[in-house]
From TrEMBL:
The lineage of its organism: Eukaryota, Fungi, Dikarya, Basidiomycota, Agaricomycotina. It comes from the Eukaryota. This is BTB domain-containing protein.
Length: 199
C-alpha cells in the first residue's frame, strides 16, 4: 500500500523516491484522489486508464477505484469501443458489458474512433486490441448463426496517370451478390450474455 508522510513529519531513514512513469498531470490527479478530502477531477479516458493502473500498483482504496469505474461506466455511452478496450485490459466483464450495451451494429462495425477518422480496417484493429478470449466471446455473440445472401457494395480504388503525368485515384462501386454472416441486432441481449454466460 502507498503510504504518504503526514504533514510536519519527516523520516530519519534515508528516503527513497517512488518511480512513476506518468506525467505530472496524472500524478497530480492521483495524489488528489488519494488525499483524505479526495474528489473526482475531470479527465480523459486515457488518463482514467493510467490512473487505474497506478491504483492497482499501489493498492489504493477501493472507494477511489469505484469512483473511477463509475466514470468509465459513464464514458461507455459516448466511447463504447474505447471503454471496451479498457475493460478488456482490466478483465472487467461488467464494464465490458456496459460498453457493448451502448453499441449498435453501425458503431461496432466502425471500430475504435481514431482521431475522428474511420477506416475499413478499424474493426479488425479494434478487435485485436482485446484479449483473445474476449474476441472469441464477442464474435460468438454478435454473429448470427445462419448465413444469408446479400448484395454487397465495395468501393474499389484505381490509380491512373494524367497526360501531365500526375497520378490520380478514382473510386468506383463494385456490386456483387455474396453469402454473408449477418450481425445480430439486440445489443442489450449481447451485453447480458457477455456478462452472465460461463466462459
Amino acid at each position: 500500500m502507498l503510504l504518504l508522510p503526514q504533514p510536519g513529519t519527516h523520516s530519519t531513514d534515508r528516503e527513497t523516491a517512488i518511480q512513476c512513469d506518468v506525467s505530472s498531470k496524472i500524478l497530480d490527479i492521483f495524489l488528489t484522489h488519494i488525499s483524505p478530502n479526495h474528489f473526482l477531477l475531470p479527465m480523459t479516458l486515457e488518463e482514467t486508464r493510467t490512473l487505474l493502473s497506478l491504483y492497482d500498483k499501489f493498492d489504493c482504496s477501493e472507494h477511489v477505484v469505484k469512483m473511477l469505474k463509475s466514470s468509465l461506466m459513464d464514458s461507455s455511452k459516448t466511447m463504447p469501443w474505447e471503454t471496451l478496450i479498457v475493460a478488456s485490459d482490466r478483465i472487467d466483464r461488467q464494464l465490458g458489458a456496459e460498453a457493448l450495451r451502448s453499441m449498435s451494429r453501425d458503431i461496432f462495425v466502425k471500430g475504435e474512433n481514431e482521431n475522428g477518422i474511420f477506416h475499413a480496417s478499424n474493426l479488425r484493429r479494434s478487435m485485436n486490441r482485446l484479449r483473445i478470449e474476449w474476441r472469441c466471446k464477442i464474435w460468438d455473440l454478435v454473429l448470427d448463426d445462419q448465413t444469408t445472401d446479400a448484395t454487397v457494395t465495395r468501393i474499389r480504388a484505381s490509380r491512373w496517370k494524367s497526360r501531365r503525368r500526375n497520378w490520380h485515384t478514382s473510386y468506383h462501386p463494385q456490386v456483387t451478390r455474396e453469402t454473408v454472416l449477418p450481425f445480430k441486432g439486440d445489443w442489450h441481449e449481447i451485453a447480458r450474455r457477455f456478462e452472465e454466460d460461463e466462459w
